[in-house]
Design brief:
The chain has 252 residues and is of the alpha/beta class. It has two domains: 8-168, Molybdenum Cofactor Biosythetic Enzyme, Chain A; 176-250, Alpha-Beta Plaits, CATH 3.30.70. Helix content is 37%, strand content 29%. It has helices at 17-21, 28-40, 54-67, 85-92, 101-111, 118-122, 155-161, 186-199, 228-244; strands spanning 8-15, 42-50, 70-74, 97-99, 125-127, 131-135, 139-145, 148-151, 176-183, 205-213, 216-225, 248-250. The strands form three sheets. It has a six-stranded mixed sheet, with helices on both faces. Strands 10-11-9-12 form a four-stranded antiparallel sheet, covered by helices on one side. The protein is elongated.
Length: 252
């Protein structure tokens, strides 16, 4: 991984008609987001799900690659006719979509020359100048072109490849998180919670998430920051808020 920087962000672009139709449930957003946040100090600020349409992919790649430090795409790099992510990224960056020599050799060796058919050869085609993201599960590599990292849509394969993305990323500051679970309703604490968020708006991100546990309604207050000391201060204020309103804190 490259030298650490302060604030690094990313977007995730999920590509696939099967996600939009509801036939396939996406599992990659949470996995990638958690990995980037916990392992790389990179915050995911936007997620989009789009169909397998070249024009749509091109427009989103150009837009997101300008807005964010990194764009992670999933899906559309397989052997079938609707796998058009690689050619779309090539078009977006105005480079040739061609065989990547190393990727071709990896796949040819994996399948053997006799079984290395046209569909499998297609997985070796990438935007000119792309660098490989190696695949320890099924050989077919992903790739990075500029600040766009393209991974397969199959969760188990993506999960096995994610660590091989690390070498291409600039690490941001580690984001720490703390959770305070309160047996109350959001409306009971919303005003004071808003005041605390306003006080620490430059350094702390505070979210409230209702839950139902053991027959009781509660709210999980999640605070996130790269400063442990400021998280501690916020926790003190939140605990004081709970005591003032005689709210029970659920310890897990």
């Amino acid at each position: 991984m490259k030298k650490k920087n302060k604030k690094i962000n990313a977007a995730i672009l999920i590509i696939g008609n099967e996600i939009l139709s509801g036939r396939t449930q996406d599992k990659n957003i949470a996995f990638i987001s958690n990995w980037l946040n916990l392992k790389c100090g990179i915050t995911v600020n936007e997620v989009r799900i789009i169909p397998d349409i070249e024009k749509t992919i091109v427009e989103n790649i150009l837009n997101l690659s300008k807005k964010f430090n990194y764009v992670f795409t999933t899906g559309g790099i397989g052997p079938t006719h609707d796998d058009i992510t690689a050619q779309s990224i090539a078009r977006a960056f105005k480079v040739k979509h061609e065989y990547h020599n190393e990727a071709y050799k990896i796949l040819e060796k994996y399948y053997g020359k006799k079984k290395f058919n046209e569909g499998r050869k297609k997985m070796a085609k990438m935007p000119r100048g792309a660098k490989l993201i190696y695949n320890p599960s099924s050989a077919a590599p992903g790739f990075i072109k500029k600040n766009v990292l393209s991974l397969p849509g199959v969760p188990s394969i993506l999960n096995s490849m994610i660590e091989n993305c690390r070498r291409y990323l600039i690490k941001g500051l580690t984001i720490h998180s703390q959770t305070l679970n309160l047996y109350t309703v959001e409306s009971n604490i919303s005003e004071k919670l808003g005041q605390i968020q306003k006080k620490y708006k430059k350094d702390i991100e505070i979210g409230s998430y209702p839950f139902f546990r053991l027959g009781k309604i509660g709210v999980a207050i999640v605070s996130r920051s790269n400063s442990k000391s400021k998280l501690k201060k916020v926790n003190i204020e939140l605990t004081k808020l709970a005591k003032t309103k005689e709210i029970k804190i659920l310890k897990i």
